[in-house]
Design a protein that fits this description.
Layout (H helix, E strand, L loop, with lengths): L4 E3 L4 E4 L1 E2 L3 E3 L4 E4 L5 E4 L2 E4 L3 E4 L1 E4 L1 E5 L2 E3 L3 E3 L2 E5 L3 E3 L3 E8 L2 E4 L3 E8 L2 E4 L3 E8 L2 E4 L3 E8 L2 E4 L3 E8 L2 E4 L2 E8 L2 E4 L3 E8 L2 E5 L2 E2 L2 E4 L2 E5 L2 E2 L2 E4 L2 E4 L3 E3 L1 E4 L2 E4 L3 E3 L2 E4 L2 E4 L2 E9 L2 E4 L1 E10 L2 E4 L3 E8 L4 E3 L2 E8 L7 E9 L4 E2 L1 E9 L4 E2 L3 E9 L4 E2 L4 E2 L6
Parallel strand pairs: 1-4, 2-5, 3-6, 4-7, 5-8, 6-9, 7-10, 8-11, 9-12, 10-13, 11-14, 12-15, 13-15, 14-16, 15-17, 16-18, 17-19, 18-20, 19-21, 20-22, 21-23, 22-24, 23-25, 24-26, 25-27, 26-28, 27-30, 28-31, 29-32, 30-33, 31-34, 32-35, 33-36, 34-37, 35-38, 36-39, 37-40, 38-41, 39-41, 40-42, ...
Length: 406
């Protein structure tokens, strides 16, 4: 038989078991009969606001209109609903569905299926949930395992995160783990190694450790402190990898800096400048401004509008230097095109073409074409055909040879 219990306003009652519903008036509170015992309510707890539970609680459901504080563990079989108030749990909390209009604070562990908080959600230890929806900010100090998290403001996770889908309007800071899909309006930062499928961020991204993922799309800047494995990087501003980079494609509007080697199976497109401490290799390389590396190796073509600077040279099938561009280091390719008034050093190719006013140190090719007003300061050697227009300055006489030097 159900025995409902009601506690009047501003009163405190000592209870251990309620075989029915428990109702608390405003500013009412509950204590357990024994210090370490829990309050067990078989049905629903109703709170009118500003209520305090100085014990562990278990019930079928909890409904409140105003603030509720639990100095212990809160275990709810079904749902929790707090209107126009906050819920504080100074222990562990578990439920199927939780709705809190203002603030939810859990000092220890939070285990739920779904939680919807209008303001902020703060957890002092671990979080396990299927779905989290927060209007303001989310913060957890322990390991956070969530299928889907949607936060309007900011997210801070101090331990490892395991999240399938993360959507945040503002700033996110995590401590590594695995997040499959990341969609952030502001900035994203991970202080430890992170595994991901897709990162989409409107502002800036900073990753630390050796990170591995698929797609990276960033409107501002992207920085990885450590080695990075990826499929595709698309960034509007700047990319910096303080280690080595290995992936399929990179498309960057501004600048790319890699401390060690950059290895791509697909294309590299950079609007401004790219520099690497060691080798750059890709299928095709297209740079609007400057390309700097110890060595550049492309399966097909290299096209640079400004400067190429290498120690060990550029190797590709086709190399093109833009108008008034410059090359420091040798070039080896099947076809080489040097733009008007560009300055290059040593060229080795089956077909070499210097446009009007270009300058070269040494040229070694099978078929060589030199337009007017070009300057060759060293050797000109060819094996098959040489075409030279008028007003070309040669330091030595061109020489047809049987074989060009390697």
């Amino acid at each position: 038989m159900s025995k409902d219990i009601s506690i009047p306003e501003h009163e405190t009652l000592t209870l251990d078991i309620v075989e029915g519903n428990l109702s608390l008036g405003k500013h009412a509170s509950v204590k357990s009969k024994e210090k370490l015992s829990a309050l067990k309510v078989s049905k629903t707890i109703y709170c009118e606001g500003n209520n305090v539970f100085e014990c562990d609680i278990s019930a079928r459901s909890l409904e409140a209109d105003g603030d509720v504080i639990v100095y212990g563990n809160l275990t709810i079989e079904n749902s929790i609903r707090v209107e126009d108030g906050r819920l504080e749990v100074h222990g562990n909390m578990s439920a199927k569905r939780v709705e809190v209009d203002n603030v939810l604070y859990v000092r220890e562990n939070l285990t739920v299926e779904e939680v919807d908080v209008g303001g902020s959600l703060k957890v002092g230890n671990n979080v396990k949930a299927k779905e989290i929806d927060v209007g303001g900010s989310f913060k957890s100090k322990g390991e956070t395992v969530v299928e889907k998290m949607d936060v309007g403001g900011s997210v801070s996770i101090e331990s490892k995160a395991q999240i399938i889908e993360l959507r945040v309007g503002g700033k996110v800071k995590v401590n590594g783990g695995k997040i499959n899909r990341i969609d952030i309006g502001g900035s994203f930062e991970s202080e430890a190694s992170l595994e991901f499928d897709r990162i989409e961020v409107g502002g800036t991204v900073r990753l630390s450790g050796n990170n591995k993922g698929s797609e990276i799309e960033v409107g501002g800047s992207f920085k990885n402190v450590g080695n990075l494995e990826f499929e595709k990087i698309e960034v509007g501003g700047k990319v910096e990898i303080s280690g080595s980079g290995k992936g399929q494609e990179i498309d960057v509007g501004g600048k790319v800096k890699v401390s060690e080697s950059l290895t791509l199976s697909g294309n590299l497109e950079v609007g401004g400048k790219i520099e690497a401490g060691k080798e750059i290799s890709a299928k095709n390389i297209e740079v609007g401004g400057v390309l700097e590396a110890q060595k550049v190796d492309a399966e097909n073509r290299v096209e640079v509008g400004g400067l190429i600077a290498t120690k060990e040279g550029v190797i590709a099938r086709f190399v093109s230097i833009g108008k008034k561009g410059a090359v420091r280091g040798l070039i080896k390719a099947e076809r080489i095109v040097v733009g008007k008034e560009a300055r290059v050093e040593n060229l080795y190719g089956k077909e070499v073409y210097l446009k009007k006013g270009a300058i070269a140190d040494n040229i070694y090719g099978e078929r060589v074409t030199i337009e007017s007003y070009c300057h060759i300061y060293g050797e000109l050697r060819y094996t098959n055909e040489l075409r030279i227009k008028e007003n070309v300055s040669l330091a030595t006489q061109p020489k047809k040879v049987n074989k060009i030097p390697v």
